[in-house]
Structure formats: structure tokens, C-alpha cells
Amino acid sequence: MKNIFTTVVILFFAVNCFADAPNGLAFLKISPDVRSSGMGETGVAAGDQRAASYYNPALLGLMDSRGLSFTHHQWIQDVGVNFLEAHFKSKVNFGFFVVSTGVEDIEIRTNPTQEPLSYVDSRDLALGMDLSYMIMPNLHLGFGAKYIYEHVYSDYTDGFAFDIGAFYSVIENLDFGVSVNNIGAMSEMYNEKPTLPLTARFGGAYRFSAGSAGSIVIAAGGNYVNEEEFRGNFGLEYVPIDLIAIRAGYLYNYDDRALTAGIGLRWKNLGLDFAYVPFENDLGDVQRFGFYLNF
Questions:
Q1: Which stretch of DSSP H or E encloses residue 244?
Q2: CA atoms in the 13 A half-sphere facing the CB of 174
Q3: Helix (H, G, I), strand (E, B) or coil at 214
């Protein structure tokens, strides 16, 4: 119980230390994990090791083998997102990841014209490492560090950020997760210092057997990004047989999106994931694809 109390105090202190920082670097608010995206972004407690770098570094404690995964999706307004991660089991479980986003052919004009003067690209990159250590059989703590780079037109900014999190199995099949992400600072860009989207997440997940009909995961939680409104997350995963998983979710108080859906296929050590997130206001739909290999 003392370890649990210490973890909560550390996370609370981290949030309050940076509570007055403005928000920026929006690409860090796009979830690259396909399974969690299909489940209403409930990855802080319902995710697996592939979701550790975005939702909760303590999730690395759940792994039972080494693994490698890659995801891709096209976000709104032609933003392409690619994510690659590898995780390894040891006395202290660890993983590496890289996420990149980009927008090509941004038009440049100094005044209204039929044709732009030229075209430029925008590039974002984050790469880092996560660690997870088991404090008790039912409590894992996690820590992550990452380097962040953003380039727009002729200028760039870079910096470092840290993530901390905890994953606690309250009772059998009932888990709780909490994390604070993007604690750090960036260099100046266009005479200003963009700041990271400091994010606090919490959530719970309950897993139970449906007998011969398979198994079910129900998850709920919330997150708060600095200087933005509180948002809620709700998700469901139904696994009728080991080869397939059906997912659905609901996003509360998110801009222009609410429902999510997904499906997962698994055969031996290979897996494929797909998530679908429809947007409102003619922003289109986001389709996410993921592949993973355990070895």
C-alpha cells in the first residue's frame, strides 16, 4: 500500500509542476496504437505492451515475450503517421520506439494567388525508450524518455520529454492504470518555445470469461491535456475465439469524433489490427492498420 501511495503522489506532483505550461506539438496527441484506438483510446489500463510508449510505460510489465510492431494511418488533413516499436523481456522490461508524422506539399503564398509560390513539408519525430519494473506481483511502475523534433518550413525545434506511469491489478481480472506523459521542454522556434501537451491519464479494465462464447474486456477512463477540457474514454473488446477480436469504443467530449471500432486477427505469433474512427464536419474517416510479431 505504501508503494501505491508513493506512486500517486509522484504522478500528482508531476502534473502540478507543469500545470501552467501552454499546449503545443499536437502530433504527440495522436494515438499510434491500433488496438487501443478501436477501444475508445482506453489504453492506459486496457492496453498491452505495444501501447506503452503512448499511454502508459508501466504496460511493458505485462509482456510474456519479445515483440515487434508497426502501425500506419492517415490522420485528417493529409497527416501521415507511422509508428515502430520493439519490446524485450528482462528483469527490467524495456522497449524502444519511433513515431513520425508529416504533411507534404504545403502551399506558400504571400498574397492571394491562383498558384502558390512554392511548396514545403512539415515533419515531426519522436524516438525513445521505456522501462517497466515490478514493485510487487500486482504493481508495475514505468518510466519513459524521448527525443522530440519538429521541422516546419525553414525552422525547427527539438527537446526531451519524460513519461511516468503505474499499472496495478486490484483483484483478479480488474486492473487500474495511471500515467503522466510529455513532461519536458523544447527549444525556441520562430522566437517562441513551443511546449509539450502535458497529459494525465487514468482508467480501469475488467476482463472476464464468457464461457464457450469467448472472453470480454470492458474499459473506461479519462484524460486531461493541459489547457484543454477533460475527456472520457470507454471501450469494449470481445474475443469469441483466439483468432479474432472485435472492438468498439466511445470518446466523450472529443472534437469532431465519438465512436470507434476495430478488429484484430491473430495466428500463432503474428497479428493484424485495424481501427476505424469516423470524424464529423466533413473531416473524413481515419483508418488505422497495425502488424505485430512476437518472438
A1: strand 244-252
A2: 2
A3: coil
Helix (H, G, I), strand (E, B) or coil at 25: coil
Report the sign of the C-alpha dihedral through residues 201, 291, 134, 236, in that order: positive
Mind giving me the DSSP string for 53-122? Answer: TTT-GGGGGG-SS-EEEEEEEEEGGGEEEEEEEEEE-SSSEEEEEEEEEEEEEEEE-SS--SS-SEEEEE
**Contact in structure between 142 and 58 (CB atoms under 8 Å):** yes
Q: 23 pLDDT exceeds 60?
A: no
Separation CA 242–CA 265 (nearest Å): 9
CA distances from 12 to 5, 60, 120 (A): 11, 22, 41
Indicate whether this model's pTM tops 0.70.
yes
Cα-to-chain-centroid distance, residue 239: 22
Alpha carbon distance 279, 254 (integer Å): 10
Q: For 78, how many CA atoms within 13 A lie in the half-sphere containing its CB? A: 7
Which stretch of 261-265, 271-275, 283-287 has the lowest confidence by average pLDDT? 283-287
SS3 17: helix
C-beta atoms surrounding 281 within 10 Å: 8
Cell (9 digits) for 295: 518472438
Q: How far apart are CA 50 and CA 31, in angstroms?
A: 11
- Please list, in sequence order, all residues whose beta carbon lies within 8 angstroms of the beta carbon of residue 191, skipping any fewer than 6 positions away: none
